[in-house]
Write a structure and sequence with these properties.
about 60% helix, about 90 residues, single chain, mainly alpha
Length: about 90
């Protein structure tokens, strides 16, 4: 079987300064959504899948904040955090 370039794994990397910014924005948006009584997970998923900022409240400037960073960077931060929690021993 002949392998082409589409069979190779591509590498993707974002510098640490973007990680910090993505985490900060996610935290602030999460707080704003909770303040307004929204299910933050559902609203963030809606935004990440559609790109429609109306899933995010304008309370506490959250809608403007979330638009400051690319959705792929937000997803990377979420996956990084999720995988880190899987790798760390559970504390009870």
């Amino acid at each position: 079987m002949i392998k082409g370039p589409q069979d190779e794994t591509m590498l993707f990397h974002v510098g640490p300064e973007k990680e910090t910014e993505a985490r900060r924005i996610l935290r602030e948006v999460h707080h704003a959504l909770k303040d307004k009584g929204y299910n933050a997970v559902n609203q963030l998923v809606g935004y990440l899948l559609s790109g429609d900022p109306t899933y995010i409240t304008s309370h506490r400037n959250a809608r403007a904040l979330i638009r400051e960073i690319e959705r792929d960077e937000l997803l990377e931060e979420l996956v990084r955090h999720y995988l880190a929690t899987l790798a760390s021993p559970k504390q009870q």
